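HUMAN: Can I see a protein plus its fold?

ASSISTANT:
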Amino acid sequence: MKSSNRKALAWVAVMSLVMAACAQAAETTTTAAPATTVTTAALTPDTTEGTPDTTMADMTVATDIGVTEEPCPGGNPDRGCIYLGVLTDESGPFQAAAPALYGAQQLFWGTVNAGDGIGGAYDVALPEELKKDTAYQPDKFVADYNQIAGDVAAIAQSLGTSQSIAAIADYERDHTVAAPMSWWSGWAFQDNIIEFGTNYCFEAMNAIDWAAGAFPAQSRELATIGILAIPNDYGADYSAGVKLAAEANNIEILWEQAVIPASAGGDPTQTEAVAKIVGDAPDLVILVVGPQETAAIVGGASGQLGATVPLFIGAAPSWNSALLASPAAPAFQAGIFFQSSFVPGWDTDSVGHEKMRAAVDSIGQAPNDFWVSGWVSQYGLKAALDGAYAAGDLTKAGIEAAALALETVDYEGMMPERSFAGDPNDVTPREAVIGAYSAEATTGIATIAEFFVGPTASAYEFTAACGG
């Protein structure tokens, strides 16, 4: 469990390593048996509060798995290489998101490498051979991780909640830190996960609190809610937040129904979900699904109910701009769909968004908000690598210790800064973003409420995962 005591111990470990590195002893001792030491002419690394600020010439750095003295393929010839693995979904419900997520992460590190890299001494690579399609299946996810575990310093993308949960024991065994492409509230209590953004539970609370104020203001009643969710930890965690906020706002949960993605053998048309909406229509339908399911459900219900169709709010992973090229496009353009999220979309004015847009434009790819998610996911991992390098320990255990010691991670304006040091109830982000269809928005969704905390999320005592 992440706690202030664990963080304090990790910080002591990091500081001890810094002092040892600065002493430039004749021999360097590290707790990782296979570790080697490399002497580098170090530049001043990017720093984060909670990470030592050091400028050391001829610095001695301990390394083990996934870090080489040899340059990255195509990288700076005078730097070593830090290899990261990717566990993604190229054949499951989020297969349409996979290219942009992985592509954005490659672009992020390409931008870092074009600058100082990690301490001016290492580039970072996410090569194709260290990327695995886990098909959104927990067993395959674990097997795929173990195929690359001996070649990577960390995991840049750990996609899926149930899938990543299944690998936690292996991550802990190997001292592997991972950036999840998942916003399960339980990550706040897992030491090896460098989560980013607001979790599903708080995101959902804010979505309902927002709707409780916004819908009546637009002369739309909000007395009942129906929930359609994938029956896994993603679905359970967001649904838990919906129920907590619904109770706080005296809104009835009319029904809750599981949605099986077509990639897992479900009906591509989601006939049962559509029939549930048509037969027992609530004022608001919550979608905790993937984009393919969103299109089938919103398009199908709108086609049958017309002007009497309920309003919809989808969780962050439910939207893809490609839906505007689907048969369901008229339903979205009618303004019945809203999206909750942890980060505002493509058009947002921030330093991080600007860098991301420039990088995507440079390779001629079409805008998509999954580029945003992929890019912003890497800031915490970069801060951990910077901290580990500054501490003179780029072993997996050293990276793990640096991650635990992070007091502030700066997302260059894409999201509010956050800490990983302290009690989860105090440091876990609670802000959410609400978006709505806009013909002027590059990816079809424009932010209409940015980084707000509703009364339910504000008052919630966060001591364990909400659901899952």
In short: Confidence is low (pLDDT under 50) at residues 3-33, 39-57. Residues 93 and 261 are 6 Å apart (CA to CA).
